[in-house]
Design brief:
mainly alpha; 2 domains; 10 helices; globular; transmembrane helix; Integral membrane protein; membrane; transmembrane
Length: about 325
């Protein structure tokens, strides 16, 4: 995926779509700023000696410093998506941060809706104050708006931004051109990498307990998260297969957007959860045995990277045909 702008004749997009990109980008940045504010308050409070009872001062400060950095990147990403100068940002860092941010948040939209009806907790393992210390209501509201607003803003702004900057990846229909040669070996490797975590997540969602060290941790909210992850992983794998085989015919942007989001979700959430499962800061209790976590999240990270590599190869193939 090159960092150069697309030819003028292929990059034009309706004013309404551009307005949606601007609104989504600014909305994402503003929403996540509320989450960032809460995290900064927590860091300052910890430096003054106010730390949740289940965490040491050092663990709490490091954890929230990491999420502060992640939030700053998210706010900047929202501004990049909203501004015209955002199209001049070098492609590699832009794609990586957009990929991980989309993977973290966009798949959470259906989960957050379902969780609201079921009364679950949509914190998603973000490192909130879950050690028994109740948060003030304003913190809960700011965190909820931060997650939901950033997710919705990305869902609106990111596809339009990518369509404007790399139109070859989204224009037309599947099968209009020869499909990218991803190779049977790569596809089979992807299927195998995705199969293990998907089977585990589906099994646990259905109520299975094999591989779980702490079954009480796997509540309704946890099973809902796992089911959502399994669904997105399957959707991403199917989307890559559509791009590789050129069928069935559908608007090209559908499998490209699904594969981009799904691969980011496989990578980002596993890369976030694996250190938690192994280091277990603040007495954090993982549902799985450590060895199971290594296999589960290691394969998920690998599957996300393989899926992104296949997606980028398909994009480069289409860009080459249009030159």
């Amino acid at each position: 995926m090159s960092g150069t702008a697309a030819p003028v004749e292929t990059e034009r997009i309706g004013a309404g779509w551009s307005a949606m990109r601007v609104a989504g980008g600014y909305g994402a940045a503003l929403s996540l700023s509320l989450y960032l504010l809460v995290k900064v308050v927590w860091v300052v409070a910890a430096l003054l000696g106010h730390t949740p009872s289940s965490f040491s001062d050092g663990d709490w400060i490091v954890l929230n410093a990491v999420t502060v950095a992640m939030s700053v990147v998210g706010v900047v990403l929202g501004l990049v998506l909203a501004q015209r100068w955002g199209r001049r940002v070098p492609a590699p860092p832009l794609v990586f941060f957009a990929w991980t941010a989309a993977g973290f948040l966009i798949p959470m939209i259906p989960y957050m809706i379902a969780s609201a009806f079921l009364g679950g907790d949509s914190d998603g393992g973000s490192g909130g104050s879950d050690g028994g210390d109740a948060m003030p209501s304003w913190e809960v509201v700011f965190i909820t708006i931060g997650f939901a607003g950033m997710a919705l803003g990305l869902a609106l702004a990111l596809p339009v931004y990518l369509r404007e900057r790399w139109p070859a990846a989204f224009l037309g229909r599947v099968g209009d051109r020869a499909p990218a040669r991803l190779g049977r070996t790569r596809l089979r490797a992807l299927y195998l990498l995705v199969a293990v975590p998907v089977l585990l997540w589906t099994y646990w969602t259905a109520g299975g307990t094999l591989g779980l060290a702490h079954r009480d941790v796997m509540d309704v909210n946890g099973r809902l998260l796992l089911g959502n992850s399994a669904l997105w992983a399957v959707m991403g794998t199917v989307a890559i297969r559509v791009a590789a085989t050129g069928r069935p015919r559908m608007p090209l942007w559908i499998p490209m957007a699904v594969a981009f989001t799904s691969s980011g979700s496989l990578f980002a959430w596993a890369a976030w959860k694996l250190p938690w499962a192994l280091i277990r800061p603040g007495g954090y209790t993982a549902a799985e045995y450590p060895a199971v976590s290594v296999v589960e999240y290691g394969l998920s990270i690998a599957a996300g990277c393989v899926m992104l590599a296949a997606l980028l190869k398909a994009v480069r193939s289409r860009e080459g045909e249009l030159r």
